[in-house]
Amino acid sequence: MRFSRMLIPTTKETPNDAVLTSHILLLRAGFIQSIGSGLYNFLPLGKITLDKVRQIVKEELDKAGCNEVHLPIVTPITLWEETGRADKFGKELLRFKDRHENNFVLSPTNEEAMVNLVRQTVKSYKQLPLNVYQINWKFRDEVRPRFGLMRGREFLMKDAYSFHATTEDMEREFALMEETYKKIFTRLGLAFRVVEADSGAIGGAGSKEFMVLADSGEDTIMVCDACDFGANVEVLSEDEKVCPKCGGGLSQTKGIEAGHIFQLGTVYSEPMKAEFLDEDQKLKPFVMGTYGIGVSRLLAGIIEQNHDENGCVWTKESAPFLVDIIVAKAKNEEQMAAAEKLYAELQSKGVDVLLDDRADKKTGFGVKIKDFELIGIPYAVVIGNDVSEGKVEFITRDGLQKESLSTENLVEQILEKLA
Amino acid sequence: MRFSRMLIPTTKETPNDAVLTSHILLLRAGFIQSIGSGLYNFLPLGKITLDKVRQIVKEELDKAGCNEVHLPIVTPITLWEETGRADKFGKELLRFKDRHENNFVLSPTNEEAMVNLVRQTVKSYKQLPLNVYQINWKFRDEVRPRFGLMRGREFLMKDAYSFHATTEDMEREFALMEETYKKIFTRLGLAFRVVEADSGAIGGAGSKEFMVLADSGEDTIMVCDACDFGANVEVLSEDEKVCPKCGGGLSQTKGIEAGHIFQLGTVYSEPMKAEFLDEDQKLKPFVMGTYGIGVSRLLAGIIEQNHDENGCVWTKESAPFLVDIIVAKAKNEEQMAAAEKLYAELQSKGVDVLLDDRADKKTGFGVKIKDFELIGIPYAVVIGNDVSEGKVEFITRDGLQKESLSTENLVEQILEKLA
After folding, report:
1. Nearest-CA distance from B388 to chain A in Å?
2. Radius of gyration (Cα) for chain B, nearest Å?
3. Other beta carbons within 10 Å of A78
4. Superfamily of domain A323-418
5. Is B349 on the interface with A (CB under 8 A)?
6. B360–A contact, CB cutoff 8 A
7. DSSP assignment of A112-164, as one string?
8. CATH 3.40.50.800 residue ranges in chain B?
9. Which of B1, B35, B101 is the best substitution to test chain A (most A C-beta atoms within 10 A)?
10. How far apart are CA A184 and CA A160, in angstroms?
11. What is the pLDDT of residues A236-293, one digit of tens each?
12. Around Cβ B354, how many Cβ atoms within 10 Å?
């Protein structure tokens, strides 16, 4: 893509109401734009990044055998009445009436709607197990939305629900989802911990959270320096705060909850009479698990963990582009020709490239470098005066290391660095 | 994908409230499921198909230089008040209050929200032209939702909005969008006509509709047999119904409106004070165009145009899978081995393949063939008893032609037929 043709409204000013780093940087770098309390437009860079994260989540779930579906955001409240959650859920559940005075909710989560989908289509144990998911927008009417994408009102979430004939099979799927989530967070290039979220469940496995490690995290977690033990500090008794099983040392750190997996059992299927015919010809309620990932929240989590004083530092798999080709003087024909050539060659190799071809007076070399740093594209190639001597500059965003590259075999050298 | 692992609840029964062919077939073939008046779950086949159509729309818009964004579905009503549409729009505009008694709408369209996005980020003629779009769910509180995806309440729409310094430039973009839409509808394999939608505009070009030709269409259009002239019959005067410019013969046919492009001018930018600084340093309102495609409606349109008495007949680019490998007896080791081999080979060539590996007693060869015909996958390869003599059957869904293929060079023969 060409910078000159994209809507990327970067700004130096820190927005008024933003205090969290990711909120400030995503606004300043032109990824998002506020349109109301807890409501954000995703501008072109934000949309591309969201799609990249979404695609990784989708690919790993599909590999694990999950079925992707799409449910309406508007859900009849009758489904919520079947489980009693229409009453129990507080004001975060946004309710409204349609023109015929029928009651609906804007879905903040979809246990009821997904149980309804499955009870109409799955009748026999032979159709089990089944794991059904969607990646869709949800609405939670937070009393005080804040922190940008970290706690918005309308947010993108992956919600998966699995259905089983037995508890053992649900536990198998729960373990598979834990592994699948680890693959997703690892592919995203994140430092994270899986932590026990449920006190009763330590040793069991009722509920686990996936924590993106970041100083700004809202949760305090205990981690071991000798094993992969981790737990939300709130669920630990005083005894447990001293001695994990492996005997290593414990320390506290901060985490952002970006995923959560639950063993549900039959708490939704029983009241909703979601039953299947088992091998012994008896009707039984589905044994269920549920698995969430905050997809739009992950954008904030990635930046909370990966930024510096100059801006965002996207990980390779989450970045809107992998390489930014910066033409120092876009009106210089030699520079522009070299940049166009490199742009075409990298694209032909399947690399996501942004060509900063802006040629207006206000957008000099300094502005382009500042924008590269603020946006946080992993690598830049600067094509400046030295190109006439066969040289360009290669910058790695993380650490801002610079090195000179020869224009001979330039594409091969760059591909090696990206690998 | 393996049929045995996918949720594809096909059924012989015609659903109660469905009268339109596409509504009946999409329900019966397990693409969608009703969850309330005008509200549908997209089941796995429906989700895959929707994504394929969406991807084609996105690719062609991106090639035309458009910028993809994402806007919240929940929009502050204050934006709609700026243009007066909060009052003018009837009950189809669903309004509600959040917990703080602030007023919102569920967006049925996004002129105001997109003008708001652009007026905050585009200040100079140098940033023009700009065409911004999203492919997102909309809500229209129809008084009587019906015909399935043809007239649902929650629906997927591509809405694009272009911003220009001059009317001439907007007209250039309007022509570009007309060409882009033609490419989209052609790639989808649809028979369609572009028709004049606006009486005053014949000869001019204020508004054009893209009509998918189908007997069940709600609109009557006049087309010429000698040129590509077409017009909504309602906009033609008696004189115009007799003599198109080219001198050919006119006839009437039916169409489904699947796309609509408009020259808007400044009707939104003026009341919303969306202005840019022009070359002469004067503030001017953006000249706008707007361009819609009903993405979920297209699924219905494709089936209205492409079906037979046995079920759906998806076009190649819209089909959930291109090839269905039917294993006549999945418990026969030789058949299953041959099917697995073909499945792996076709996948390695990038072909979207469904392997009907169902092995339960109820799902015999006849059921698999009926499901293939109902779902409407373009091609099937039947692996049955003849495989031991080196033969398989190849079926083309459109017309149900059958031919015998040798297992020698089978992949090459199949790829040739798919091309």
Report:
1. 30
2. 25
3. 15
4. Anticodon-binding domain (3.40.50.800)
5. no
6. yes
7. HHHHHHHHTT--BGGG--EEEEEEEEEE---SS-BTGGGB-SEEEEEEEEEEE
8. 323-418
9. B35
10. 14
11. 877 777 786 777 888 899 999 999 999 999 999 999 999 999 999 999 999 999 999 9
12. 26
Tell if the CB–CB gap between B121 and A33 is shorter than 8 Å. Answer: yes
Both structure tokens of A264: 């549900």
| Euclidean distance between CA atoms B393 and B391, whole angstroms | 7
Two tokens at B26? Answer: 């999409």
Rounded distance, CA B352 to CA B391, Å?
A: 22
CATH 3.30.930.10 in chain B is located at: 3-308
Q: How far is CA B318 from CA A133, A300, B27, B298, B397, in A?
A: 22, 35, 17, 10, 14
Choose the mutation target among B42, B66, B69 for the interface with A, i.e. most A CBs under 10 Å. Answer: B69
| Tokens (6 digits) for A186 | 């690892």
Question: At residue B199, does pLDDT exceed 80?
Answer: no
Q: Would you call the peptide bond into B44 cis, given omega within 30 degrees of 0 as the criterion?
A: no
Half-sphere exposure of A409 (CA within 13 A, CB side): 5
- Taking the CA atoms of B92, B98, B104 and B105 in sequence, report the sign of the dihedral they define: negative
Contact A33 B120 (CB under 8 A): yes
Closest CA to B379 of B357, B351, B407: B351
Across the range B13-19, mean pLDDT stands at: 87
- Assigned token pair, A67: 């079925």
ipTM of the complex: 0.96
The Cα angle at residue A391 between residues A386 and A392, in degrees rounded to 5: 90
Q: Which of B74, B291, B392, B90 is nearest to A73 (CA)?
A: B74
At residue B126, the 3 state secondary structure works out as helix
Q: Which DSSP symbol is given to A283?
A: E
Closest partner residue to A67 (CB to CB) among B44, B102, B137 is B44
Nearest by CB to residue B67, choosing from A7, A130, A139, is A7
Test A141 with B99 for CB contact under 8 angstroms.
Answer: yes
Digit-coded pLDDT (tens) for B204-249: 458 999 999 999 999 999 888 888 888 888 888 777 777 867 778 8
Contact A9 B121 (CB under 8 A): yes
pLDDT digits (tens, 9 = 90+) for A345-404: 999 999 999 999 999 989 999 999 999 999 999 999 999 999 999 999 999 999 999 999
CATH no., domain B3-308: 3.30.930.10
